[in-house]
């Protein structure tokens, strides 16, 4: 039986997080008397902070740099957390925290809203934790071939191995062009990353739908280049929305793939809160 009424998002930095806005809208729509706060917690302080929580706590959302630490702390993992090695959601209970990765489902749903269904070829920019979730998401969408571009291709060795295990032809290259055509590009680079204009142009010329997971500043140079060519470019906001919905499912029922009762109304409330901020 799930218990506790307190929830929060932890990370460092955390002041920018829109998770409290999304979750407050969801629990208001569900008429659930839960609180959802934010707290700055770094990786070194995470174990002590987690162990200090009492039975009033129901769960946590985790952002950078805590997703690996949360995975280590979990006593059980859902399939996506196992596939990625990253946990962004902990459901607390007397037997210990259960770990989930809702970023994967958030990416799949966001790309679906952008009109991307089953595709065969894709490109990921970056090689961090979000890139791992993007890789697993693309696998779920049936992608057969993935190219990972990173400033240092050897930094993507683990991703290449993981993609191969998932049954995809996975390669790593430098961000420098030229670039071959793909059907979808997922950019997981930090928001302050600067790419040479020639690289941006080469990537946009390769076509395909772009998901740039940045959402604090829009448009980005990448999305602007896509839009200049009449191509679809979406920010990280739809991913944020849909991964948060899956977290709400976890906190309500313990499973991220089990829709909520009257979920359309809950999702609409969360979307209004996000765009009306």
UniProtKB/TrEMBL annotation:
- Give a single Pfam family match: Shikimate_dh_N
* Biochemical pathway: Metabolic intermediate biosynthesis; chorismate biosynthesis; chorismate from D-erythrose 4-phosphate and phosphoenolpyruvate: step 4/7
Instruction: Write down the superkingdom of origin.
Output: Bacteria
Entry keywords, A to Z = Amino-acid biosynthesis, Aromatic amino acid biosynthesis
**Gene3D superfamilies recorded for this chain?**
Leucine Dehydrogenase, chain A, domain 1 (3.40.50.10860), NAD(P)-binding Rossmann-like Domain (3.40.50.720)
Q: Where is the Shikimate dehydrogenase substrate binding N-terminal domain?
A: 9-90
CDD domains from the entry?
NAD_bind_Shikimate_DH
InterPro entries given in the database record: Aminoacid_DH-like_N_sf, NAD(P)-bd_dom_sf, Shikimate_DH-bd_N, Shikimate_DH_fam
The protein depicted here goes by the name Shikimate dehydrogenase
Q: Species name for this entry?
A: Microbacterium binotii
